[in-house]
Amino acid sequence: MTSTPAVDDFVKSDYEHGFVTEIESETFPPGLDEDVIRAISARKGEPEFMTEWRLKAFRHWQGMAKPTWAAVDYPPIDFQAISYFSAPKRPEDAPKSLDEIDPVLRETYDKLGIPIEEQKALAGIAVDAVFDSVSVATTFRATLAEAGVIFCSISEAVHDYPELIQQYLGSVVPHTDNFYACLNAAVFSDGTFVYIPKGVRCPMELSTYFRINARNTGQFERTLIVAEPGSYVSYLEGCTAPQRDENQLHAAVVELVALDDAEIKYSTVQNWYPGDAEGRGGIYNFVTKRGDCRGARSKISWTQVETGSAITWKYPSCLLRGEGSIGEFYSVAVTKGRQQADTGTKMIHLAPNTRSTIVSKGISAGRSTQTYRGLVRIGQRAAGARNHTQCDSLLIGDRCTANTLPYIEVKHPGARMEHEATTSKISEDELFYCRSRGLGEEDAVSMIVNGFCKEVFNELPMEFAVEAQKLLSISLEGAVG
Amino acid sequence: MTAASDFTSWLDGGRTVSDGPAWLADWRARAAQRARVLGVPGRKDESWRYTSLSALLEQDFRPAAGPALPAASALAPALITGFEPHRLVFVNGDFVAALSTSGALPEGVRLGSLRERLATDPGALEGRLGRVAGAQAPLFSTLNAAGFQDGAALLIDPGVALEQPIELLHLSLGDTGAILAQPRHCIVLGEGARATLIERYLGLDGAGVCTNAVIEVTLGQGAELRHERLQDEGAASFHLSTLHLDQAPGSRYRGVNIGLGARWARTELHCGCAGRGAECDLQGLYLAGDGQLMDYHLDVIHSVPECTSRENFKGILYGRGRAVFDGRVLVARDAQKSDAAMSNRNLMLSEQAEIDTKPQLEILADDVKCSHGTTVGQIEPEMLFYPRARGIAEPLARRMLCLGFAGEIIEALSHEALREQVTEQVGARLEQASG
Q1: Across the interface, do B363 and A412 touch by the CB < 8 Å criterion?
Q2: A403, A422, A425: residue with CB nearest B371
Q3: C-alpha to C-alpha distance for A330 and A431, rounded to whole angstroms
Q4: What is the pTM of this model?
Q5: Which ipTM did the prediction report?
Q6: Domain ranges across chain B
Q7: For residue A295, what are the CA distances in angstroms to A173, A264, A371, A412?
């Protein structure tokens, strides 16, 4: 059998962001016990309270069982085979500006198409770039400091704002919450801390790019955003990962706290390596995201575009505890190949006049499995609560699976809730219309799918919306026909 | 009284059908064994997530020592004027020939006691009884298989259309203690046969009886069955009922479930469209008031292409009423051109009522049209304003609006007399609730 170089190139090019940067990193040997946790804490120079906090979580985690209820299937994870810490070398002389950043690392960003300088100038986005586990660059600190906004890595926050960390860390997702959140509490490597003071509208969109790099290293991000009364912040999270063979565990925790009249908008574009055509080598994405609308009239909005990961297990939720608070969830999830996604949201209405909106669009292709799993709970005190839920699934190909599993619990008559769900394939009529106007089949499908997802894309910040549409088209390449 | 830890007491001491062919004894023994292995489902069991069995375990229901022999007058309050079906009467699960009026049946229709059929003509039921429920039936269906005392056997030959409805009238009489009644019905319609079947469950006194009924329905190619189930058990009763339905190509099943009575009621509808072009229409109306739990589980499986199913359930909750709706539509791999639409709408009339609803779709084929919708709401002031502005007092206006909401399901009943009866019962319960 012969093959031309062009064909070979094409075959190898299926994951655009698949490359490994050769950079010396200081990595712990695999394994997890109390000593490893003390070592992580010591390496990061954490105060005593953090070490204790981690140990408490670890001791609890040892007694927990891995959850099995999600509609996903994967070989058991050996938690002792994972290395729990990896930091770029020379942490003591961390770069003060972009110029000091390791050129190899810079190159990586360039390959990813995220030139930090350009973004600085063009998009007006402050970037807290996370490369592996330790933040190596934080830009726009000054502009934000002027407004009183704290935007730093969580390690820095532990040193610089211990009282805020003690007050809020684990207050939305306690270490007892679930298996992976507990593991994260014990071993979290780094992450982002955002604090918006009272009455401040954050002058720019905040953004973190995640990248999993060092081979065989689980990444345990921890994000904490606190919005004081009357403040506003929009936070963007996006990620791509290099191609590799071992499955990588990613168990992040995101906690949002919105006080009276505060608003947090959290957007995610997730494009981690989904594995090869047989599902080998993709990322395991087991994330706990929860927002706490603690104050009256506060608002938390989750928007996500999920195209990557071999397995996604993620339910961004809102606890509506403040009177008149609002929770929103807009999601587009695309699965193909052998990807498995079990995702959805929880809206817990605990106070009167709380409102929530759920719009979930799932597209499954190939041999993938996708499940929407959502909970809307209207408590006994939630008079006048409102919920509207819409879950639509689009199926491409006859080997994929789409499940819709909503749970609705209502304990107050003043509540009004509506739930709608549909599942169908792309209509022949729509395809015919596009094809008869000269569009290729893939373009036509891409166009129809983009239309299907429009309600969610409209919620994304401009820069992300463009990226998301592109991502969607790329994801569906080869899935049609 | 100390609560029992499981339902094995249900397996002991009943007057089960003891004589009969070997296959029957085998099947029952396997069921008893399986029931012991299954144990008691807990909250971790997905289909029992919102329903606690502790209230049922606290009771000590036992199969009755002998058949109850009510006077003919006991039947009078159960009859509906203007409704004259072929009637089989069951008292606490036992067939009572003296009260039944099966009348003249057309040729090709065999209707009678299941116990009798098993004794005289077991071949007619071999391979049919227990077939639809299968070896993996859920707990209460399995308990019934092990311990059913009697039931109806209805066998209709191919091509026979039965115009007059058949009624299976179940009376619960609790004057002899906490009785467990386990009837099992076996319905087989041959190719192209047609029939209307009404199941009624009535509690004629306040005493607590536990009914655990199972009905297995097999529809031949192109057969049509209208199947209506009216549950109005006594306020202290427990009611469990399970439908196992198997549809051949082109067959049509039209079911209406009305749930009004019992303190704790669970209905499981297991429907399998195993033949191309089968149609399954399930409708339901449930009312739950003080201390009542109404629990509905639907499991509709589209295992072959081109089947259509409709699930439309409505609930009215008042007082401290609770309801659970757990509907599942599964479209199997390659069951293309499946069409399923599920809807669950609930009206909440009080602060203490609670509804937990879980409409699920599991789709493994791509060329399908599936949807579900759920709503929970109350009567809006604007809706009340219209009748109020026309001089109608508020309680009556509320009742009218509720009856309007329920009307869609009541209208689906096949007989005018039944529609009137149910409307009256629903109205009376609503009046009680507001009074």
Answers
A1: no
A2: A422
A3: 26
A4: 0.85
A5: 0.83
A6: 2-275, 382-435
A7: 17, 12, 32, 21
